[in-house]
């Protein structure tokens, strides 16, 4: 019997979020749609929040081998959106190497708009195969704060980078106002973790991670992230350098240290000690107007505490997007 209902045009795993600026200058949700296994939730927003909050979820707390997620995000002029998760995005094992779990994110951020994407890290299980592509298109005055990080797996079960393959690619494009001008690629950052296809004689994937339980990338672009970007660059420039020597006398050092014991200096000294104790390594660089921060930590919580403390200390992300944008890094 032929169904009297029209054929559905929806696609499994596809979702869309559109955020606009309302007449009273408050960011609001214009529409949100999703299909299994993707799930999106957006609590009611208010002017005090600073941005629309959306939770990126999946049924069962993870993605089963072969799942496909396609999320499209449109942040219209002047609007602000924060995307978070409610825990690690779990990637379940694949029974065959050619059964790939995929997640694609396509984002357009218009003039004066901003997106803050600070999720919990991805947690790939043993023998999982995962590929992720995230593409962001920004106009000249648009802003982006993106955190992309991955853990070693379930340590309680003895997993230590036991995944089969994990590929993550982030692209940031500049979209000019003139429609006759082509978009320009600013950053293409790709991380490939492959336990099987390794060059002959090279260390295993576990050995090549040098004891890190989590590795991540923070990408900052636009006027709303200018302050936090400069903060990371200045703190990276202040890190002790190998071979650096202090030629001052002990008395002169003590005098200068007493003068420099400001709130920031005290926090920095404490943070440097924690970075040493918790085996946190990181770097920051300016690439075509984007600030790229790379980091790794010996434990997931150490990595979370570090990136969270940096963002909270500087304060501009919380100021522009609201404290709820930082819930995954607290």
Describe the fold and architecture:
It contains 6 helices and 18 strands. It has one domain (14-239, 250-329). A hairpin with a 5-residue loop joins strand 1 and strand 2 (27-34). The radius of gyration is 22 Å and the shape is globular. The chain has helices spanning 205-208, 226-237, 250-259, 263-277, 300-314, 316-321, and strands at 14-21, 27-34, 38-41, 52-58, 62-63, 68-75, 80-84, 89-91, 101-109, 114-117, 122-124, 129-138, 143-151, 165-174, 184-194, 214-221, 281-287, 290-297. The longest helix is centred in the last third of the chain and has 15 residues, at 263-277. With 330 residues, the chain is an alpha/beta fold.
Name the quaternary structure: single chain
Order of helices and strands: EEEEEEEEEEEEEEEHEHHHEEHH
- CA-CA gap between termini: 55 Å
The tally of domains stands at 1
Average pLDDT, all residues = 91
Number of helices: 6
Task: State the secondary-structure class.
Answer: alpha/beta
From the spread of the alpha carbons, the general shape counts as globular
Fraction of helical residues: 10-25%
Strand composition percent: 35-45%
Low-confidence stretches are: none
Could you give a short account of the major beta sheet?
A: 8 strands, mixed
Q: In angstroms, what is the radius of gyration? A: 22 Å
Order of strands, widest sheet = 3-4-7-10-13-16-18-17
**Beta-strand segment tally:** 18
Short description:
The chain has 330 residues and is an alpha/beta fold. Helices cover 19% and strands 38% of the residues.
